[in-house]
């Protein structure tokens, strides 16, 4: 785990704040983040890229809370967005639209207009049809949309099928074989300006080889496209770098970047601006979800029922993802094996299976690695208000999102008249 989040003197700390004290004050379920862990993760990318033209665009889908975006904006990062809503968040957090790349297979015309008017740095276009629509929208506004084509390099990222995106069978990107034609088409349209190329091959990637293979495939295309007279300014290698949930050993960002730069240099592309779109590796291990044990149900199968559920944390139910679970104040009693489950009415509502824990009702548990794809994927299923979020910076802790209130959940609903 991250050094920012660790047990000291029999208590779990996030930086210099005792997690149990935060739960006493703010209740549970509670998300707690380490601001310095986020800063350190961004710095690892930036330091490895120092002296090179680059932009690290935080993929905000991983955790789109305003104070998280603010933290990365202050660190000099750009942002990777996939909706008009995410663009509004970036602006509300004080982010700079000129550092925003807009990804996604299905952008609406309204979202295209919104992004053009805000002045985003570039659109990552995922199909030929999208080129035509975007050109139309830009021309109608009397401007040209900066575009980068997301190509599908057809490499195996060797990760969970739901989060692997760079293979032929995926809905993402323009097939490698059609990319040159798509670039010619883009260059011929009045409302577009070609500025770059990009790819994103998947998420929670723990090896460097798929990245190097994808880079090679992308550079082949860059050379072909430039030969056709269309200059390419930046190369965006996407996000996807994995983190340690249990025993995974992903390369450090600096190691991966070192290898990518070597490959770029060896192929004579060292001058190019490099963009990254990391999400999980910037925030994943910077947060925990704190939950309270409600009841224990021993028996053939032993259940530890807690107050956080699949609506708070979808990853186990959706991907059978393993998330570490630790007590906030470890007991000296003998540990027993428990399935840690939530109160939602679904058998898929579990947070951890067969975990060895010494627990009693009222204890707090922390689910680890909950900085990414946790709160941002939370829902209100079972009319459960989403929990609060706290950002820790040293010994200071600030509420960055209030706990939802039940009445807010149905504030927009109406009974039928008559
Ligand atoms: N760029 C694009 C175009 C993406 O689609 C994604 C993630 C990223 C960047 C950031 O990838 P990262 O560095 O976070 O791996 N909900 C899943 C992960 C879905 C990832 C979707 N795309 C999970 O909880 O594992």
Automatic annotation (TrEMBL):
Residues 38-283 form the Orn/DAP/Arg decarboxylase 2 N-terminal domain. It holds the Pfam family Orn_DAP_Arg_deC. This is Diaminopimelate decarboxylase. Keywords: Amino-acid biosynthesis, Decarboxylase, Lyase, Lysine biosynthesis, Pyridoxal phosphate. It comes from Aquincola agrisoli. Pyridoxal 5'-phosphate binds at residues 240, 277-280, 373. The modification N6-(pyridoxal phosphate)lysine is found at residue 61. One of its GO terms (biological process) is lysine biosynthetic process via diaminopimelate. The active site is at residue 345. Substrate binds at residues 280, 315, 319, 346, 373. The keyword Oxidoreductase does not apply. Gene3D superfamilies: Alanine racemase, Lyase, Ornithine Decarboxylase, Chain A, domain 1. GO terms for molecular function: diaminopimelate decarboxylase activity; pyridoxal phosphate binding. Specifically catalyzes the decarboxylation of meso-diaminopimelate (meso-DAP) to L-lysine. It catalyses: meso-2,6-diaminopimelate + H(+) = L-lysine + CO2. Homodimer. It is an enzyme of class 4 (lyase). Its cofactor is pyridoxal 5'-phosphate. PROSITE patterns: ODR_DC_2_2. Residues 31-371 form the Orn/DAP/Arg decarboxylase 2 C-terminal domain. InterPro entries: Ala_racemase/Decarboxylase_C, DAP_deCOOHase_LysA, De-COase2_C, De-COase2_CS, De-COase2_N, Orn/DAP/Arg_de-COase, PLP-binding_barrel. Pathway: Amino-acid biosynthesis; L-lysine biosynthesis via DAP pathway; L-lysine from DL-2,6-diaminopimelate: step 1/1. Its EC number is 4.1.1.20. Belongs to the Orn/Lys/Arg decarboxylase class-II family. LysA subfamily.
